[in-house]
Design brief:
Layout: E1 2-3, H1 25-29, H2 33-42, H3 45-51, E2 70-72, H4 87-94, E3 100-105, H5 115-119, E4 126-130, E5 142-144, E6 164-168, H6 174-183, E7 189-193, H7 209-215, H8 219-230, E8 234-237, H9 246-253, E9 257-261, H10 275-278, E10 280-282, H11 288-297, H12 301-319, H13 321-335
Parallel strand pairs: 1-2, 2-3, 3-4, 4-5, 6-7, 6-8, 8-9, 9-10
Helix pairs in contact: 9-12, 12-13
């Protein structure tokens, strides 16, 4: 069903951390097992734990392009994806018989892509999956994509006690900073406001790429972050550098209830996942406190417990890397 040219495979170009790998997830899932193990051994500890489930997948790339329905272009470099480096690759593949290109994009921006013009493709030639961007600007062949994250769930859920988590550095987006400033002093807000990224670096990320991106956050910072989610029933999800929330998937993973501020986001599998019932789904940001309290007061303790359990199951089925692959393949099968 899927084809790629493994002659272009270069493990050394792939970022080692879990944050920048999501646009590679489909490619990883379809590698031969020997190459899957090579990838896993190259990743840092957190990314290894998140991507180990690719070994659960038996599908592999087709070796015959004319037998495949989709061409996947390996997004080996997080920073150079969808630029001139892959033009020649696309030109070569366009000459072969295969139905559609698949593009996966998770970089921190909301740029609009005119792939039809840029690569000389027609509208029916490709499908785009991305984490950011805006739903109202997305074309019909564009879909939301989740971030692949590690599993830190301890099997415990919360009782009906109103509490809201946030741990992070909020000033990467003006809107995010304004929202956090407006609710951080609520009685039920359990906020940890950091001055630096999770590895405690005082240098800008771009000047400290080795520790920020390759090594990932230090264990103390990560534990503080996970503990913050774990001890609260709700967690704040608001856009960052791009129009998506990494924390949304972390809260589903932890079996908690996201307070999701929808800023015209491209949500993955939105026709199947009950976002509007299993999150505090907020589109009017004038009184967030009221929205949270109204949701909380309108649910019994049993109902809130069931939502937490459902959210954990949603993460396993749709967002863990093997579940993400299965559901993405299902979506694509329906497009043929």
């Amino acid at each position: 069903m899927f084809y790629t040219d493994l002659n272009h495979f270069d493990c050394s170009k792939i970022q080692r951390n879990v944050y920048d790998l999501s646009q590679n997830f489909m490619f990883f899932c379809l590698l031969p097992k020997s190459l899957k193990n090579k990838i896993l051994n190259y990743l840092n500890e957190e990314a290894y734990e998140a991507y180990q489930y690719i070994l659960n997948i038996d599908d592999e790339f087709s070796t015959q392009i004319n037998e495949a329905k989709f061409k996947i272009l390996g997004s080996f470099s997080y920073y150079s994806y969808l630029n001139e480096e892959i033009f020649n690759h696309i030109d070569h593949l366009k000459k072969e018989k295969c139905q559609k290109f698949l593009f996966f994009y998770s970089r921190d921006d909301d740029k609009e892509f005119n792939l039809e013009h840029r690569f000389g493709l027609t509208y029916n030639d490709f499908v785009l999956f991305r984490t950011g961007g805006f739903k109202t600007k997305a074309k019909k062949n564009s879909y939301g994509m989740p971030y692949v994250i590690n599993d830190y769930f301890n099997g415990m859920y919360k009782d009906k006690h109103l509490s809201l988590s946030f741990c992070g550095k909020p000033d990467n987006n003006k809107f995010k900073l304004q929202i956090i400033d407006s609710i951080k002093n609520l009685k039920y807000s359990d906020f940890i406001i950091r001055k630096h990224w999770a590895n405690n670096s005082k240098k800008p990320v771009g000047l400290n790429a080795l520790s920020s991106y390759n090594l990932g956050p230090d264990k103390k910072s990560k534990k503080e972050f996970i503990d913050n989610i774990e001890r609260n029933l709700y967690g704040l999800c608001v856009r960052g550098v791009n129009n998506s929330s990494y924390r949304l998937y972390e809260l589903f993973m932890m079996g908690r209830i996201p307070v999701f501020l929808n800023t015209d986001c491209n949500l993955p599998f939105e026709n199947e996942i009950p976002y509007k019932t299993n999150t505090v789904f907020i589109e009017n940001f004038n009184n967030i406190d009221h929205e949270i309290r109204n949701f909380h007061d309108s649910h019994t303790e049993k109902e809130l417990l069931n939502i937490q359990k459902q959210n954990r199951e949603i993460w396993l089925k749709y967002f863990r890397v093997d579940g993400n692959y299965t559901q993405t393949k299902k979506l694509l099968t329906n497009l043929i």
